[in-house]
Amino acid sequence: MSTVKPEREYFLDSIRAYLMLLGVPFHVSLIYSTQKWAVNSTEASLWLTLLNDFIHAFRMQVFFVISGYFSYMLYLRYQPQRFLKVRLERVGIPLLTAIPLITLPQFFMLKAWAPKLANWEHFSPYEKFNNLMWELISHLWFLLVLVVLTTLGMLTFRWLRDQKRLIDYQRVGWGTLTLAVMAWALLWCVFRRVIFMFQPGWLMDGLFSIVVMQTLFYLPFFMLGALTWKHQTLKQLFVRFNPVMCFGAIAVFVLYCVNQRMSSGEGWLYELDALISTLMGLCMLNVCFCFGHKLLNSHSPRIMYLVNASLFIYLVHHPLTLLYGIYVTPHIHNDTLGFFIGLLMVFGLAFLLYEIHQRIPLLRFLFSGKPQNK
């Protein structure tokens, strides 16, 4: 257990906050993209479809690297049982709070006002349960995955802490790192293909898809973050500009777009998506870290405000975006104008709700998981 509190990594806080806040333009652009969502505009926009694809291609991979970094830091700071309690409170309490206060009302809203659940009465009991699970936790999936990864961290972090230094990380470069992470992604693809061949229904199950498949996909990024804390040479690698990784992100994004439009669900769409998204995550890890370290590695009250607000904004923006899509989108016939009006309305209402909740101690605790000072 370490009792020395390290210097705050402001650029990592900032990147994590911005990645969370990117959830708003991601979901607002989803309305105007070619992707089928709960609500869609009459005509799809090409540039908003590309924007939506770009955000989706890398955002959560980088987020889980940063989560693993800070989680391992806390694991070393506390006793293991104390670490588990602190992390589960900070992740689990907002998760459990958001279900009855956000996603359950959102479910009834979709059931009443959107065509997505129009045939609810004709669903079988399992279909009703599975759709309910998707609606209750799909928006909160990353919190559930963090709960699972934190619990697994009692084993994986202990193994990492006790691991003897068999690898000289001074000699580890992007090539070795990419091969290692891509090897895990390939194993994930094989695992998914076996399930698809013998138990395809599991992949449509909300709980299995998130708890098992998503957790296994993001596990190497989470552990990569922990390794970055333990071996600072990795952090130096990430914050140093690498032209192959940075400009390679453009080529990988082109592959991502091609796969989304040329492949099918019955073919190799999801396996190719996993491989491409893994590579895109590694490329954008270098982009986010190197530019974040140069531009955001200093204390700023405005940035710290966004850091503190980002989780709450992410939790409440989803139903606000759906309401905007249901009631406002049909009256705006220009997709670009609708997108920016949507950003203004959703961000405005979300920050207003954040300020209201800040003044209510119980809500501050429920949406942060942190004990509030008297």
Summarize the structure in short.
By secondary structure, this protein is mainly α. Helix content is 76%, strand content 0%. The radius of gyration is 21 Å and the shape is globular.
How would you describe this structure to a colleague?
- With 374 residues, this protein is mostly helical.
- It has helices at 10-21, 23-31, 46-77, 80-113, 125-137, 141-162, 174-198, 206-230, 232-239, 243-262, 269-295, 301-327, 335-358, 361-368.
- It has 14 helices and no strands.
- The radius of gyration is 21 Å and the shape is globular.
- The chain starts with 9 loop residues before the first helix and ends in a 6-residue tail after the last helix.
Structural descriptors:
single chain; 76% helix
What is the count of β-strands? 0
Unreliable segments (pLDDT under 50, ≥5 consecutive)? none
Order of helices and strands: HHHHHHHHHHHHHH
Biggest beta-sheet profile? none
- Tell me, rounded to a whole number, the average pLDDT: 92
Number of structurally distinct domains = 1
Provide the helix percentage.
Answer: over 70%
Count of helical regions: 14
Strand content: under 5%
What is the molecular shape?
globular
Structural class: mainly alpha
